[in-house]
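To the team - s-citryldethia Coenzyme A complex, inputs and output below.
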Amino acid sequence: MSETATVKLGDKTYDLPIVTGTENENAIDISKLRDLTGFITLDSGYKNTGATKSAITYLDGEQGILKYRGYSIEELAEKSSFLEVSYLLLYGNLPTKEQLDNFQSAISRHTLIHEDMKKFFDGFPSKSHPMGQLSSLVVSLSSFYPESLNSNQTAEEQNLTIIKLIAKMATVVSWIYKKSIGHPIIYPQNKYDYVTNFLNMTFGQRTEEIEIDPVVVSAMNTLLILHADHEQNCSTSTVRMVGSSDCNLYASIAAGISALWGPLHGGANQAVIEMLEKIKEDGGDTEKWINKAKDKNDGFRLMGFGHRVYKNFDPRAKIIKKACDEVLEKLGIDDPVLEIAKKLEAAALNDPYFVERKLYPNVDFYSGIIYRALGFPTDMFTVLFALGRLPGWVAQWKEMKENKEPIGRPRQVYIGEVNRDFVDISQR
Ligand code: SDX
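Output:
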């Protein structure tokens, strides 16, 4: 590969540097393009545009490869824990036993949230969407921890801000759930590891100590690991964009939560279950719904299918599908929507419309079925996605700041009216 790309504009040619990553991805560095040529590039949805150079996550959409800091998602999902993967994403290496123990104890020390925050929970209407609550509650952490507003924190101060957020997120998520069903909140207990503590706060009872099923703990760890990071997706790019204005971590993450809420992004896991339920109520005629998804005049999309980057299988979907079968069998659950999902997948994978467009099941297609089997209501699914994605968002925000990246400010091509004179309202 040559070191430069040549752009020819009129009778002039310009050489632009080529950047090659450690996984041999190639990019044309256009950071000097406008200065050199007066031109900008245009790429709606940034489908061909790299926003940064990152050392956190690598994915290859054609090969269906996903790696966090060089470790394959398959190995991490099978052999690691969510807290260990969070450490890996945040600090770049798998922790030693001592480092992991220290990380867990630092987090355990900060799982409580300020008692005054409970008033916010009481202020939400009982049926308000958990994602709207989560975004509001996370940004409000900056009110209780004003030291997080200092954009010039030392590394230690920044790390404490990060630890507090990761610790408190599990508490906030579980309390949102408890409030939604009118149950008393359960406080964190330091005797539990991160995921077990979350499950106890979510499904525990005030009146008795409950046994947390190891099958559920293992499945939850796997699901959170699979969601932990995914390079420059919509919500992560939002976190980086907001953080690039020197905005504090809590507000940057709250912005990412809002971006994730969209049904085309993290909200898809809720939309998938709602779609499968609708198909079930409609008699389970998957062919009819496949045809609706193909019909341009029909607003229906096959939720959980397709991906901006994966033009082959989403490796996370393969792992979740396998976990789905295992968890439902171990928990003795027979969920009819799982069979509908499998029928839908089989039909779509043999239909030219989906094959030609390289539309495969993505991470959201099966995750909702497991969340439901674990006892979560549908409108909590995207909140669980956010809980999993948190360490990835934070790692990306941290990397952006460490690299002192400039404030994000894309250009545009203006296509509006030109040179109009003001006309008094009496003359319009
Ligand atoms: C996530 O980026 C990430 O990494 C995200 C994520 C992460 O971990 O952060 O992986 C998580 O967001 C997964 C995606 C969850 N969303 C859904 O499942 C919603 C359904 N999928 C789509 O809406 C769509 O596939 C997207 C949004 C995921 C990707 O959209 P693109 O890349 O902009 O593709 P497109 O909309 O331009 O579609 C290309 C063609 C179109 O048809 P033509 O105009 O070429 O004829 O494929 C069609 C689309 O109509 N198409 C679908 C479809 N997805 C795309 N047709 C029917 N059903 C679908 N699901």
